[in-house]
Batch of 4 targets.
Target 1
Amino acid sequence: METTLRDWLYDPTVARLVTVGVGLVLIAVFVRAARTSLGRYIRDTDTRYRARKFVSFLGYVVAFVFLTVVFRSQLGGLTVALGVAGAGIAFALQEVIASVAGWVAVALGNFYKVGDRVQLGGIRGDVIDVGVLRTTIMECGQWVSGDLYNGRIVRVANSFVFKEPVFNYSGDFPFLWDEITVPIRYGSDHRLARQILENLVRDEVAEYAETAKTSWREMVRKYRIEDARVDPLVTLVANDNWMEFTVRYVVDYTRRRITKDRLFSRLLDAVDETGGRVALASATNEIVAVPELRVRLADGSGSAPAAP
């Protein structure tokens, strides 16, 4: 019994397994300690996130190199077995392989990065993590109107970058074109109405107007795209019911709902200050009473009110 236990303890394979176990535990402890330390010394959220991801990736690399060194003498015998099993593994794990390939494409192809607002796999929201297999998104919309978070965290397989279009709201050009439509009643001073709208939208987008122009110039230099108008634009269409003004402007992708709220709030105040020269139009139908209906009989004997 003692001889068998001694042989087992001195067996090279057992020694390697023990070495691997101890080594992997030490690597995991060091990686965890390094990630915790980074959270204490790095205050910037984006830098801290990237540093932690780098430490985790470095830990995987060190673990792989460690395993290769420990089992270097057995690698030659494993080559044939891995070659035979490779076809079956590739078929069984094709979705996993596609997700890993998607991760490589995201990392090298600049599809999106952490912090971007995207629509991926039918899910719209902000990217909060990009893993080897899945992208984690803080979802916007659904039962919540506008571009506000709804509280759900969604993990989407990276393979979707090959299956569906990837919409990036904040990639090379971190702004969106947005519009509001304002109906003005006929008889109002349309010149004054246009001036009010132009002043309002110019004031609201002034804080990032120059940044948007600079970003768009970079887009024009980088891609074959027309030099579109970035400044606010107010247009007028006269339809059957009212004069319809459309206000088009560039807005930061995170401030679309807030900007629209401020525009409408200031517009109502500005219309009130015109003293009736400008009035908003609306389609309102109100039935105040049902008219009395009288029926004349065929023999001319008279008429009687009919029930409404």
Note: The chain is about 50% helix and 20% strand.
Target 2
Amino acid sequence: MAERQWKGATYGNGWMHRNLIRILRFTDVRLLYLIADIFVVPFCVLFNHSRKTAYSFYRNRLHYSVPKSLWMVYRNHCLFSQVVIDRFAMYAGKSFDVSTVGTDHFKELATREEGFVMLSSHIGNYEIAGYSLNSERKVIHPIVYSFEKESVMRGRNSLFHLTNVSMITLKADMSHLFEIDEALCRGDIISFPTDRHMEEGRCLTLAFLGAEAKFPQGPFSVAAMRGVDVLAVNVMKEGLRKYRIYVTPLPYDKEASRKEQMNQLAAGYVAELEKRVRQYPQQWYNFYDFWA
């Protein structure tokens, strides 16, 4: 099997993660931001392949000038380091100022008996939605990859159990499909990452930022098969300690054919994703050739 372009795991090992959490219990995140901006980010920009894919994104997809593209590569890496620090800061017990646009859409669906699907992307810091956008009546099941580090999974579990969130891990034997179906039958919420796929997975090809890109078919197929409502949820960093959650409904014709339903959902999702990427261009965190 060909090597995956994206590994599905947070950088670093368990020892690094545990010590970062310990440090953050007693340290202002702004100090770590500064250290990362001065020492870590320049090293990554100079020696990591991510600089090439990031530069190509700003130059070829957003059509920025050469100087602006170079600056955006640096700022993109700075903000990504802040997002990673913020994630571990949450594990260490710190909190952030989070506001929500479109929260009524979530609250209204959460009152119904039927389950629904939320679609997310690797822009901003979606994980914060799991600690901020929750329901007392319904369990939210984020779909997570089995490649993730134990320290990250432990940090998530320590917070998720307080907010009625229960993760479903993708498994090689595909048993996660039964867990997803059972959760929707119970009226729960399934949260899918929708902008990354494995080489062996089925994909839909759509125009995104001026070129064709592949998106995993699974999330759209699950929603169409069950005929459930779908929300796009993006969590964007607005300041040093501030985030904003955007909740956007994705309407589709539930009487159409399964294929047409999937296409409608995928088109609506990609349009919303492109809108948020253009609104927050520094917060695109797919550090590989997304359009390959």
Note: The chain has ten helices and nine strands.
Target 3
Amino acid sequence: MTTVYLKPHKEESLLRFHPWIFSGAIQSIKGNPQEGETVQVRDSRNNFLGVGHYQIGSIAVRILSFRDEEINDTFWAQRIRQSFEMRCSLGLNVPGQNNTYRLIHGEGDFLPGLVVDIYGDTAVMQAHSVGMHKERHRIAHIIADTVPAVKNVYYKSEGTLPYKAPIETTEKQDKYLIGGNGNNIAMENGLQFHIDWLRGQKTGFFVDQRQNRSLLEQYAHGRKVLNMFCYTGGFSVYALRGGAHSVHSVDSSAKAIELTNKNIALNFPQCTSHKAFAMDAFKYMEQSHDTYDLIVLDPPAFAKHRDALRNALQGYKRLNAKAFEQIKSNGLLFTFSCSQAVSKEQFRLAVFSAAAQTGRKVRILHQLTQPADHPVNIYHPESEYLKGLVLWVE
């Protein structure tokens, strides 16, 4: 096995079980590893540190195990089984009530570079590293053997694999690895949703907002709700079940609006209190003369890397300021950031600045994050990416 040797004192983060090794920490490599190959990592004194996937780029190695063990079928089966058992213990796999959840959350489940979401009888898998891409068939079969409901495994990594990775174009293509044509209607907390894992964003649905959607349902009764960046209409469906007076859903994607309308019709066939608009969020808020009792701001990541951080924070400030201008007295604002590069403190400061700019009195009712099936590895704080606030606006 190829061995990667670190520079003196560069092993300190690994001794704290952080799973990333940056290229600048490497002193030498014994061997000629191909991208995605499993390598052994040692410190400058030749002490064993871990085994992981080698890759070209800033993050040079993603650690799979801090033990000197073989990364084989037994290893993969054990890790995937542990992840599934945790989801079962959380009550996320309940027939007739919930069959939608994240099975594997990358570093949060000690499998860096791998994401798997379950939608009924279909698992949707994304590889974010070449190492996980090379293991895709083995992982798919273990998932199908581990999760009784899964009959299909769809591989959706065309847009998540490293852009310059040495992988044949045909290998990158999204496709079923097992089965095919699974039932694309999944259930979350008793509500049904069409999941478009073939053409939709991420794996087809934002599973990470499940608990936050439930919280919104509790506040929706009698309110006029605006759901910005609605995507497939998750918050809108929950608001309607919560007894909202009316709901407006807005997204720049016409396909997203089409799917939102399908999900509303799936759960509330005779609904007349919902309207959807295919329009840019900022343009809608600038042109709309409506005011709302409850506004949801759940935009896509404004900053996917730290170079874009300043512009992202300005974007959050501008967006939240528009919401503060359009929300009624004693209204509620559910506002989120899913940008990993934006810290909780930075996001809160951007929202604070927006509130101060508009002069509204604002109180924080809830501070929100990702649900338990998106666990945060205590040694890898970067895996905590979703930040949210529920604000009472006088």
Note: The chain has a mean pLDDT of 94.
Target 4
Amino acid sequence: MDNFKAFLKRKDIVFSGKRYGIDALGAMAQGLFCSLLIGTIIRTLGQQLSVQMLVDIGTYAMAVSGPAMAVAIGYALKAPPMVLFSLAAVGWAANAEGGAGGPLAVLIIAIVAAEFGKAVSKETKVDILVTPAVTILIGVALAKLIAPPIGSAADAFGILIDNATKLQPFWMGIVVSVLVGVALTLPISSAAICSVLGLTGLAGGAAVAGCCAQMIGFAVISFRENRWGGLVSQGLGTSMLQMPNIVKNPRVWIAPTLASAITGPIATCLFRLEMNGAPINSGMGTCGLCGPIGVWTGWLAPSEKAIARGATVTNATGFDWLGLILIAIVLPAILSLLIHALVRKAGWVKDGDLKLD
């Protein structure tokens, strides 16, 4: 047993929730962002501007989402070069075989293939053959065997959330908005979670509301401490920057979280806000304005996932645009400021509690 532990340590194979559930998941979201998400945006712009070159570029970027996710996961797991490059084939196979739930299949299968690849890396004199062969054989074999049921399970759970939100838009609007928003601020990836579950439609709209509430909320309530730099880094970057302050004083989280509990049902019940772009957009919030952009692209050209669940092209009205602006920016700012004023008055939060290092 001691020899096995020493071997795992030497190979940097660490079985932990942090490495697989935070590091790998977060990296997978970056891989999705750099392929599917940016490709969707570029292609949609090309379609609207009638520029075929942009359409082609976006289509190519979207096509390699599986390899991009797998390579990103391997990078997070500190895979050596031969393993990392071999994961491109694994990601393509897992994403293709996983169908609607491809991202979850890629996450699980890429982790397994990467760890096996790391285990055999540089252990033989023919490493150039053994390492890629082991990585690809194990990864693609798993893709053929388990990716379809993994994909079906993820898709079924996503459909369950979507249907529940349609049946109970008020309560599910609160639940989805709060939970996805909290995931955005925690050191896990809300974008990857939404992509894995294929969160689109009304549930996707609630998720966008929750994520925007967290980012805009923290940006505005911490303005006195962090000024314009903090406003931009949190409002267009990530609310995860506040995690050290949340650990020190969890009450700083009250205002953005309560704001998300309010904007979620407003999005689902009043504005019927649907996010029918790429599912990853549902968990992005105002990071690069990807959440609102996802809603916009969903109006113009719904994603395959959204179309499979009944989405169609929408001729957005002034009311739709009003709802998007209010849910994504205006209401989170106003509600968070009002709630935070009450929290400060109660003495739960004081000056400096939201200061970014």
Note: The mean pLDDT is 92.
